[in-house]
Design brief:
The protein is mainly alpha-helical. The protein has one helix and no strands.
């Protein structure tokens, strides 16, 4: 009978050992699966964050591109205005230069005093060139 009890204790011990090994392996697998799940959740969260940032950056870049296009149009308009104003100023400068030249000529050749004895040219004889 002691043999039988010893055999039973041995079998129970073996089953306990095998159970312990199986339980340990299962817990190790569960721990690994838990870590993998947590890693996947972290990666999913990071991917969602990156996706939302990408959308924000895309919207920002589009708005900046639109602003750049608007500013380019304004630069074209302002360049045309500057060219037109430069043309007008050049025309006015030519007119002023011509007036100054004509006045100098008139002042050196025409006397406005009617009874002037030193008139050059004589009254009624001036003909502009």
């Amino acid at each position: 009978m002691t043999e039988w009890i010893a055999t039973a204790i041995g079998v129970i011990g073996s089953i306990g050992g095998i159970g312990t090994i199986l339980y340990w392996r299962q817990n190790k697998g569960s721990a690994t699966a838990g870590v993998v799940k947590e890693s996947m959740d972290a990666l999913k969260s990071a991917l969602e964050t990156l996706t939302s940032q990408q959308e924000v950056f895309s919207i920002t870049i589009k708005s900046k591109d639109d602003e750049i296009a608007t500013l380019k149009e304004q630069i074209k308009e302002l360049s045309l205005r500057v060219a037109e104003n430069e043309r007008k100023v050049a025309g006015m400068q030519r007119t002023i230069d011509n007036e100054i030249r004509l006045r100098k000529t008139a002042e050196s050749n025409i006397c406005f005093v009617t009874d002037c004895k030193l008139r050059e040219p004589k009254l009624g004889t001036y003909k502009p060139k």
